[in-house]
């Protein structure tokens, strides 16, 4: 079984080839046009996907040594994501499947983030809980099988990646600010400043409050000292990061208890955060959890995870028709 997979949901254009469940490569073109705008501009993302997609697919095929006539299927991200960006990948995949007369496989991007855990060893065993933390989502997912997943908690407003990026912006850091906050936080005091923890019922999250809290905090401090940010950048970053991680972990612990699960995974771009990784490793010791963190390359958007999901769908003969359309909002199964 050889499958070509395409990812184009946001600002990464990516293609990968998988053969019998083994990832052969993962070609990613990251769009730089958005940097000067401090966030992803949807229309520019679509145009950049149009420019990058064919070269990226070409490289994925040639570097894997698989020619298109050998492909058993072509897979693509159907959603969730930016409509115009998804449209580019969907249209390409449809034409490709039609021209080669091979099956077409639609993949849910959030399910794929979780299935990135099945690319390399060690693989989590079922059932496990995955905390998916990215630029657009924050979800606690009970994973019962490769394709049987249930969202047991999620954010009711901003995603945690968004909270990292928006607070970083208030500090004058360039987009995306998450990795910068992480970098400065390493040398700061996490208890230097206190920001409120949101209290949500059940297993849901809310991250919009911290943005406002940081905004007012900085406004007040800057009134006293206009160099406040420069002087305290490391401590502010460490304190914000500490608050966000505390919120993430509180619900994760609650979910693990409630569902009696000890296999815990994290997925999505924010799982690159070193503070979150360290906290999870400490918790693993304390609570006897087995934790799973994918390789960095498979944490952020990539087509390898789409290919992995497509492999399992191929085994189930779960194909879609040429009339399929992208979905900006899409639920996990
Ligand atoms: P989604 O998957 O929900 O559609 P997305 O694909 O844009 O959203 P990802 O690419 O998975 O999201 O992740 C990007 C996010 O991860 C950004 O918000 C970025 O700031 C954040 N991020 C990346 N590295 C780190 C880090 N080391 N610390 C904190 N946040 C980080
Ligand atoms: Mg991205
Ligand atoms: Fe993503």
TrEMBL record:
<dbReference type="GO" id="GO:0061711">
    <property type="term" value="F:tRNA N(6)-L-threonylcarbamoyladenine synthase activity"/>
</dbReference>
<feature type="binding site">
    <location>
        <position position="182"/>
    </location>
    <ligand>
        <name>substrate</name>
    </ligand>
</feature>
<keyword id="KW-0808">Transferase</keyword>
<feature type="binding site">
    <location>
        <position position="301"/>
    </location>
    <ligand>
        <name>Fe cation</name>
    </ligand>
</feature>
<feature type="binding site">
    <location>
        <position position="178"/>
    </location>
    <ligand>
        <name>substrate</name>
    </ligand>
</feature>
<comment type="similarity">
    <text>Belongs to the KAE1 / TsaD family.</text>
</comment>
<dbReference type="InterPro" id="IPR017861">
    <property type="entry name" value="KAE1/TsaD"/>
</dbReference>
<dbReference type="InterPro" id="IPR022450">
    <property type="entry name" value="TsaD"/>
</dbReference>
<feature type="binding site">
    <location>
        <position position="109"/>
    </location>
    <ligand>
        <name>Fe cation</name>
    </ligand>
</feature>
<dbReference type="InterPro" id="IPR000905">
    <property type="entry name" value="Gcp-like_dom"/>
</dbReference>
<dbReference type="InterPro" id="IPR043129">
    <property type="entry name" value="ATPase_NBD"/>
</dbReference>
<feature type="binding site">
    <location>
        <position position="113"/>
    </location>
    <ligand>
        <name>Fe cation</name>
    </ligand>
</feature>
<keyword id="KW-0479">Metal-binding</keyword>
<feature type="binding site">
    <location>
        <position position="273"/>
    </location>
    <ligand>
        <name>substrate</name>
    </ligand>
</feature>
<keyword id="KW-0408">Iron</keyword>
<protein>
    <recommendedName>
        <fullName>tRNA N6-adenosine threonylcarbamoyltransferase</fullName>
        <ecNumber>2.3.1.234</ecNumber>
    </recommendedName>
</protein>
<keyword id="KW-0012">Acyltransferase</keyword>
<feature type="binding site">
    <location>
        <position position="165"/>
    </location>
    <ligand>
        <name>substrate</name>
    </ligand>
</feature>
<keyword id="KW-0963">Cytoplasm</keyword>
<keyword id="KW-0819">tRNA processing</keyword>
<feature type="binding site">
    <location>
        <begin position="132"/>
        <end position="136"/>
    </location>
    <ligand>
        <name>substrate</name>
    </ligand>
</feature>
<dbReference type="Pfam" id="PF00814">
    <property type="entry name" value="TsaD"/>
</dbReference>
<dbReference type="InterPro" id="IPR017860">
    <property type="entry name" value="Peptidase_M22_CS"/>
</dbReference>
<comment type="function">
    <text>Required for the formation of a threonylcarbamoyl group on adenosine at position 37 (t(6)A37) in tRNAs that read codons beginning with adenine. Is involved in the transfer of the threonylcarbamoyl moiety of threonylcarbamoyl-AMP (TC-AMP) to the N6 group of A37, together with TsaE and TsaB. TsaD likely plays a direct catalytic role in this reaction.</text>
</comment>
<feature type="domain" description="Gcp-like">
    <location>
        <begin position="22"/>
        <end position="307"/>
    </location>
</feature>
């Amino acid at each position: 079984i050889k499958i070509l997979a395409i990812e184009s949901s946001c600002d990464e254009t990516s293609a990968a080839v998988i053969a019998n469940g083994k990832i052969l490569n993962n070609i990613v073109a990251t769009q730089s046009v958005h940097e000067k705008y401090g966030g992803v501009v949807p229309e520019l993302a679509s145009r950049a996907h149009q420019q990058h997609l064919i070269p990226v697919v070409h490289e994925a095929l040639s570097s894997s040594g698989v020619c298109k006539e050998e492909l058993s299927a072509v897979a693509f991200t159907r959603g969730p994501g930016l409509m115009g960006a998804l449209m580019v990948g969907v249209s390409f995949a449809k034409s490709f499947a039609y021209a080669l007369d091979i099956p077409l496989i639609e993949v849910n991007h959030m399910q794929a983030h979780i299935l990135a855990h099945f690319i390399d060893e060690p693989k989590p065993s079922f059932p496990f809980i995955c905390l998916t933390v990215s630029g657009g989502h924050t979800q606690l997912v009970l994973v019962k099988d490769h394709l049987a997943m249930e969202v047991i908690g999620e954010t009711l407003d901003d995603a945690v990646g968004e909270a990292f990026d928006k607070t970083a912006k208030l500090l004058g850091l360039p987009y995306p600010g998450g990795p910068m906050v992480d970098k400065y936080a390493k040398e700061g005091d996490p208890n230097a400043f206190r920001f409120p923890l949101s209290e949500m019922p059940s297993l849901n999250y809310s991250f919009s409050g911290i943005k406002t809290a940081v905004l007012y905090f900085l406004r007040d401090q800057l009134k006293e000292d206009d160099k406040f940010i420069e002087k305290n950048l490391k401590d502010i970053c460490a304190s914000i990061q500490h608050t966000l991680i505390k919120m993430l972990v509180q619900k994760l612990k609650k979910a693990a208890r409630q569902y009696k699960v000890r296999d815990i995974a994290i997925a999505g771009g924010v799982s690159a955060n070193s503070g979150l990784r360290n906290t999870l490793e400490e918790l693993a010791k304390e609570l006897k959890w087995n934790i799973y963190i994918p390789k960095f390359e498979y944490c952020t958007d990539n087509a390898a995870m789409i290919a992995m999901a497509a492999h399992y769908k191929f085994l189930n003969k779960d194909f879609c028709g040429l009339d399929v359309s992208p979905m900006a909002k899409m639920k996990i199964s």
